[in-house]
Amino acid sequence: MKTIDIITKNMKELIRDKKNLFFLLLFPIIFMLVFGVAFGGDSTTNPTIDIAIVNQDVDVNNHSYSQMLIDNIKDVKTNDSKKMFNIIEADSQDHAQKLLESDNVSCILIIPDDFSKNMQEEITKQSNNTPQITFKADTTQTNNMIAQNVIDNIINEYSININSQLTSTSFNAIKLNIEGLEGTKDFTQFDYIAPGLIIFAILMTVTTVTSSISRETENGMLKRLKLSYMKSSDYIIGNLATWCIMGIIQVIIMLLVAVFMGFHWNGGLNSLLLACLVGFIATIPSVALALIIVSLTSSVDQATNLSAIIAVPLSFLAGSFFPLPEAYICEFMGHHIQIYELLPWNQALTALRQLLLYGNGIEAIWINILLILIIGIILLAISILLFKHKISTEY
Questions:
Q1: Predicted TM-score of the model (pTM)
Q2: d(CA 200, CA 320)
Q3: What pLDDT is stored for residue 199 in this prediction?
Q4: CB–CB of 60/116 below 8 Å?
Q5: What is the DSSP string of 313-324?
């Protein structure tokens, strides 16, 4: 079978090509080691802390005590007069939870629907229901502990102001309930970066595949393969299968290195198997992108240089190294769609964090897998058309 022959040929060439092996495996491993050393210990602070606020409060007599509190939080400045908090107003707890678990925010502040009602009743002494707010985060992280302390002080000051302005009687302080994010007790900054480095390794497949296929096109190997009555579909499927298998190998190797560097892996064997599945399907758009680059270039050097120019920025845009800011483009089924979520590698990163950081199962990532497949198949269809056109034109 021609497809099996292509897979065998690719595997033999890959093992012999030490340069490609370096960029495919050792280069991402070096990144994992460097980031492990740099961020494996305590987290460093950021000048601005991203916080999601879920305001479920219902106004009382056209007065919102919660909005007054949110305005106070927005007005907090650092010592250099910059805003301490970047506020993202989430429309639901699920939305806020996803932002937190994907590391787009550091913490969540949940204001319940009876906040203004309890404030009003506490002020007028109609009841003893103390107003409460929930603060949710991985409280072992430095930024989150800072946010917790600052918000606690803001709430106390807010209570004092309400007491002095609206009532002459004693006013019980608002209660801040602290909830830690389950499973994150010992997390470090490296724990959030490590899944991104796995995606970086998968994106490096773009440069390797581009170099390999463009070289075969230029040196006549592809022409000789066609003389053996090999179909273009055999060649594409063979390459796709080869590199998807390498995607699984990359996930396993990078995870082992990450664990060695102190990564707190949750979920056990089930999460590893699902992570391998994510690595497998996330390689599909990488191979498709490589085929598109080969189809649009005329030499090995052009293709290799263009692939690096595209793959490295994509790593940053996918969120591999740093949290991405809000870039809202639309809303779908109650979820705010960010522009970078259209990248299949961002979906893969979200899935890996759900699996390896929080130990979640397939129910938490099936939508991510579906989106990766849809986008990957679209890119693959485009790449096949372009590559077939290039082959038919040159041969």
A1: 0.67
A2: 6
A3: 94
A4: yes
A5: HHHHHTTSSSPP
